[in-house]
UniProtKB/TrEMBL annotation:
A Pfam match: MRP-S33
Biased composition, class Basic residues, residue ranges: 83-101
Keywords: Mitochondrion, Ribonucleoprotein, Ribosomal protein
Main localization (coarse): mitochondrion
Protein name per the record: Small ribosomal subunit protein mS33
Source organism (scientific name): Escallonia herrerae
Length: 101
């Protein structure tokens, strides 16, 4: 080996050692190959709890009076649709059942 290539090898080894030591000391992730890594995304703080706190609790689900009124509205709308002939078909008389015949 020539003196120049030996010197380059020593310099590269020292630089690699310094880089590894710096990564250990400061808690960085060493990525010598330069491949894509999810570390940047996984390092971030999760924000799910913060987003969930922003929206108020849905009180409609807790109040039985509200739930009963919504169910009554649904049933009255369904009855109105049935009277006009626009309601859901009876079991076994839908589009799919008529295709099979």
């Amino acid at each position: 080996m020539s003196v120049g290539s030996l010197k380059n090898a020593v310099v590269q080894a020292a630089a690699r050692g310094v880089t590894e030591a710096r990564a250990r000391i400061f808690g960085h992730v060493l990525n010598p190959t330069g491949q894509r890594s999810p570390h940047k995304i996984l390092r971030k703080k999760l924000i799910g709890d913060k987003v969930a706190q922003w929206y108020p609790h849905d009180i409609k689900k807790d109040d039985p009076l509200v739930m009963a009124r919504e169910e009554q509205e649904r049933l009255s709308k369904l009855e109105m649709l049935k009277r006009r002939g626009k309601g859901p078909p009876k079991k076994g008389q839908g589009k799919r059942a008529s295709k099979r015949k």
